[in-house]
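Quick check before the chapter quiz. The format below is the same one you will see on the exam, so make sure you can read both the input and the output lines.
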Amino acid sequence: MVPYDDVYAPEPDPDSVTGSAEWGEARERTVRWHDPLVGAGAGATMSGLDYLQSMLDGRLPPPPIAATMGFLLASVGPGEATFVGTPDESVYNPIGVVHGGFVCTLLDSALGCAVHTTLPAGVGYTSIEIKVNYLRPVTAGSGELTARGWVTKPGRRVAFADADVRAADGKVLATASGSCLIMSG
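Here is the expected output.
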């Protein structure tokens, strides 16, 4: 049996790659994060709003996805959360624009954390559905994006929220609606 990595993610042989001289210099990005279980453990003893505020204040580490994707929590309030991020070309898709997954991740983070702000200590959530409408293309030149999520209907088992992503000039780039399963313990 061939190991998974050998089949699906082979190390490229620089001598066998055609056209590499025309591709320009390779770029790289380093991602650093802290132990995610430190924050999660502390979060289990706090209300969702207090937990997210602790991240915002720097008392708890942000989740690794924020470093990986290059965005951060900007503000929280009861039933709402806002993230900001400036995409670069490392999140481009094959057609030369920011991948929809980057925008969707911002939207999911904003609406999920908006729901989280409504939850008491010891209660968590997970996304169970998200519907995204992409309205305009996003490029590395779009500047800082702002994703704001707000709860439209809290619930004991399922909560609903909406979100949008806006460019620096305020134009709406994408919208989303989603639902989160509420989980105790």
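If your answer matched, good. The chain has one domain: 35-184.
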